[in-house]
Amino acid sequence: MLVEKRNAGRYAADFVKDGMVVGLGTGSTAKHAIQRLGERCKKEGLEIIGIPTSEQTKVQAEDLGLNISTLDEHPVIDITIDGADEIDPELNLIKGGGGALLREKIVAYHSKEVIIVADPSKMVDVLGVKFDLPVEIIQFCSTAIISSIEELDCSADLRMDNNTVFKTDNNNYIADCKFHQISEPYSLSRQLNDIPGVVENGLFVDMVNRVIIGKKEGVEEISIE
User: Fold this and answer.
1) Where are the alpha helices (DSSP H) in the chain?
2) How far apart (Å, rounded) are the C-alpha atoms in residues 220 and 138?
3) When comparing pLDDT for 1 and 102, which is higher?
4) Per-residue pLDDT for 41 more than 70?
5) CATH number of 133-199
6) Average pLDDT in the 118-129 region?
7) What are the residues whose beta carbons fall under 8 Å from the beta carbon of 40, sequence distance 6 or more?
8) Region of residue 82 (left: phi > 0; alpha: psi -120 to 50; beta: else)
9) Most buried of 56, 72, 91, 174 (most Cβ within 10 A)?
10) How far apart are CA 3 and CA 99, in angstroms?
11) Coil, strand or helix: which one is 40?
12) How sure is the predictor about 224, in pLDDT bands with cuts at 50, 70 and 90?
């Protein structure tokens, strides 16, 4: 899938125009978009301000010489380019496989346009069939929080990193939740976020303007007007 991811990321980067504030996503496909933006800044003299969604992305962007800032300094983002773990026909998403879902959702929420880049395997008929839903939770009473999540008819496991509990850039835990299928993502998102101790969930509902699916040759654009 390397070629498909590369084609999607690089294609999406060409939507960025001089002077834009750009949300920089996290993950294996988004990194190709960031790489392309670095090339454009050097070759074309493109001047942008990048808002990274993770510490990992921040390091990559800085290594490429991109100008980096924060939402506090630039509260309106012109365009965000990010990846996804699953995409349904209405362009709702599951995100969070890389552990950056909270920052990714905040950046997407403050963006005028959100472009998702992905390979064909990420398109699904119904969310949750192939990929567990990540839910970011606080460390305090994490077992009790996970038990409350499981009352929503799922099984949930605390994400591990080798032999230790995985921690996000916000120093929270992630519960990976197996729902088998998520037919009403908006309702489930609200239910999850109503549980005390849940910080945010990986359902991105009605937040995406355009999806770029990379192919071995070229890309496919999907949008909902």
Assistant:
1) 2-13, 30-44, 55-63, 101-109, 142-150, 185-193
2) 38
3) 102
4) yes
5) 3.30.70.260
6) 97
7) 13, 14, 16, 46
8) beta
9) 174
10) 24
11) helix
12) confident
Say which of 39, 44, 47, 104 is annotated catalytic: 104
For residue 75, what is the DSSP state? -
For the chain, give every domain's residue range. 2-122+205-217, 133-199
- Cα–Cα distance for residue pair 217/161, rounded to 1 Å: 35
pLDDT of residue 1: 72
Active site residue 104: yes
Tokens encoding 1: 């899938």
Q: Which of 213, 208, 204, 13 is nearest to 115 (CA)?
A: 208
Q: What is the pTM of this model?
A: 0.96
Which pairing describes strands 210-214 and 219-223: parallel, antiparallel, or unpaired?
Answer: antiparallel
CA 126 from centre of chain? 18
Radius of gyration, CA atoms only, the chain: 17
Structure-block tokens of residue 15:
């939507």
Structure tokens at 4: 């498909």
Cβ 178 vs Cβ 154: under 8 Å: yes
Q: 2-122+205-217 has which CATH code?
A: 3.40.50.1360
Q: Which residue has the tokens 């916000």?
A: 170
The amino acid at residue 8 is A
